[in-house]
Design brief:
Radius of gyration of chain A: 24 Å
Number of helices of chain A: 13
Oligomer: homodimer
CATH class of one domain in chain A: Alpha Beta
CATH architecture of one domain in chain A: 3-Layer(aba) Sandwich
CATH superfamily of one domain in chain A: Acetylglutamate kinase-like
Largest interface: A-B, 37 and 37 residues
Helix content of chain A: 25-40%
CATH topology of one domain in chain A: Carbamate kinase
């Protein structure tokens, strides 16, 4: 008998009918002999409705009261799901974050879990009940209601799985697993049976939206095996996110991630002096603009070109700041380009396979795709190219590294 | 500086604008130098919406889960009201029943309050904050969420006032106080400045819908001065429900209550034997039909006539049961009449003033109104008459006892 934590998001519990579907799914896992804890989000749309009500009252509602307000969303879902389970003969009991005693710090709206009391949950599981837990929410040591921030239900599921030493944490989403790349770009994209935590982290941070990056970090930290499954398809094993690299050793590359949301900024002809990087990026950071890739080239004339990427929505703001810096430093010019895309190869196999980077560059060159920036980590190579090459680049790399084959 | 508990019902907090109005009202009490605790219901319609969702899933939803579900209604209101108070510069903090620690028994849907922990509320009041408490809800000793049943927010307010030893518990409703009778029946009806608890209890039990009878009992038991006020009118002192009879001593009668929701059943010619009352009323009680007035007359022929009233909606059901009893007992006939009304005079002044009953009967007789049943208590006289005489009877009595005069 295994102990499984299942997590269903807002879309999966968006209507009464869907809640009843989830109940049948949970019962199936229970009937198969497992102990089951279910973590659910608010019905889709509900959190936004509540935030809308707060917005009618205050432009900047008190974070403590906002948490009191929005946590009612999951509380509605847990009650309805417990009822739906009982209705099909599956004994169940619901718990709010406060009732479980999911103890967090007091950072309303973005709290972190410090401790979980598993006493009552274990007692219910032992009594043969399914335990339904409200995701996204907890309580601080003074009894104030807190929330973990958007996507926090994934974190709740992983934290519950860690606290209960569950055999598996299953995240039900609207996709049926993790793919070698986005099937909308490359129809030959293949669902992965397994992927390592490190790879999943890179995929998530590079723009793959399957899982919240924080919950993946959390699962990695607490050794919780994580599985991504579709909440709408009954069959399928999804993708298991695992610590072991054995199953994926053979492949050099696990997947290709890409991010359309970046823009590139270049400041040219900056006098090459110590501290110039700080002088350029300091004002950007002060304006709360996050910088992703950074590249610096030294020219022969004693000046340097400095290029970095930011979120596309902040391109104009960053450009204005950069222009002021350029005037101060006596730089030659500032260039902004928001028609770029970042394409990344991800794979732990890179560690033991040489020549991945050159194979990547050769593939792109062969298609006539000019590489504008390059950035590498131990298990990832990212390049920035013109956005018109996105589909061509992804498909060429997908084929070159044989990702369509098992 | 007085400590005041204010309670606003679902209609008073039915929209964001109304919540903002309540906030202004609360701030006014705070600015006048009072410490204020506010108890609120769910926004009107919300509780029924939630019960509707449960109804889509189960015909008989689990009472524990139903309480988890419906208590989100008040939780939304407390957060929004706390935000609205903060927005107009009035420091405030919200508490669910569980957060206050309103400890109840485990009777989901109709729990009774056993204890209230006033530690956190007192600390907030001392810190200059308005405390906003979710009505209708509590928590049992195992941490399960409970509700007090419909109208339970009044009970929460009174219980909070008792626990905090508040100077006054103010119930804001859609009427501006307690009247000598229903102004829709007698336009000369006058708002009472004061009424005693005993009178209010009689008025409530006789069909006056101003307050939930349970909250009046509770306030009486715990010596909490209660005031009924309008949530829509800024001015006015409402009606104070008090223990002291001094202010009302002069008046013989405080008010006239009436109840249109009754029906009269008579079983005639029952052999007059010991235990006949039980034989007649036992089956009625077994069918969960509540009986109000009971009158028995003994005839000269060794038989008796037995008459009682029930809620009008249960008249047919009661008639069927009574007919079976009549057949068993060999009674002459069963008569049902659902065109009756009960009119009651209420007043603690009756105790020290003789002749009230005869003045009442004389007044009705003078108008040609036939009295079908009479029932009395220490501070109340009720008569049953044909419903066509309701307005005539109420107005005649209102004038005869000088109720329009201060």
């Amino acid at each position: 008998m295994a102990l499984i934590v299942q997590k269903y998001g807002g879309t999966s519990v968006g209507t009464v009918e869907r809640i009843q579907n989830v109940a049948r799914r949970v019962k199936k896992a229970r009937d198969a002999g497992n102990e089951v804890v279910v973590v659910v989000s608010a019905m889709s749309g509900e959190t936004n409705r509540l935030i809308g009500l707060a917005g009618e009252i205050s432009e900047h509602p008190d974070p403590r009261e906002l948490d009191v307000l929005v946590t009612t969303g999951e509380q509605v879902t847990i009650a309805l799901l417990a009822m739906a389970l009982q209705e099909i003969g599956c004994d169940a009991r619901s718990y709010t974050g406060a009732q479980v005693r999911i103890l967090t710090d007091s950072a309303h709206g973005k709290a972190r879990i410090n401790d979980i009391d598993d006493t009552r949950v274990h007692a219910d599981l032992k009594a043969g009940r399914v335990v339904v837990v409200a995701g996204f929410q907890g309580i601080d040591q003074n009894g104030n209601i807190t929330t973990l921030g958007r996507g926090g239900s994934d974190t709740t599921a992983v934290a519950m799985a860690a606290a209960l030493r569950a055999d598996e944490c299953q995240i039900f989403t609207d996709v049926d697993g993790v793919y070698t790349t986005d099937p909308r770009v490359e129809p030959k994209a293949r669902k992965l049976d397994r992927i390592t935590f490190e790879e999943m982290l890179e995929m998530a941070s590079l723009g793959s939206k399957v899982l919240q990056i924080r919950s993946v970090e959390f699962a990695g930290k607490y050794n919780v095996p994580l599985r991504v499954l579709s909440s709408f398809e009954e069959e399928g094993e999804g993708t298991l996110i695992t610590f072991e690299e054995d199953g994926v050793e053979a492949a050099k590359i696990s997947g290709i991630a890409f991010n359309r949301d970046e823009a590139k900024l270049t400041i040219r002809g900056v006098p090459d002096e110590p501290g110039v990087a700080y002088k350029i990026l300091g004002p950007i950071g002060d304006a709360n603009i996050e910088v992703d890739m950074i590249v610096q080239n030294i020219a022969n004339d004693g000046t340097t070109d400095f290029t970095f990427t930011v979120n596309r929505s902040e391109c104009d703001k960053a450009r204005g700041i950069l222009q002021r810096t350029a005037d101060e430093l006596g730089a030659r010019e500032v260039i902004a380009d928001d028609h770029i895309v970042k394409i990344s190869l991800v794979g732990v196999g890179m560690r033991s396979h040489a020549g991945i980077a050159s194979q990547m560059f050769q593939t792109l060159s062969h298609e006539g795709i000019n590489i504008q920036m390059i950035s590498t980590s131990e298990i990832k190579i990212s390049v920035v190219v013109d956005e018109k090459y996105l589909e061509l680049g992804v498909r060429a790399l997908h084929e070159a590294f044989g990702l369509e084959q098992e």
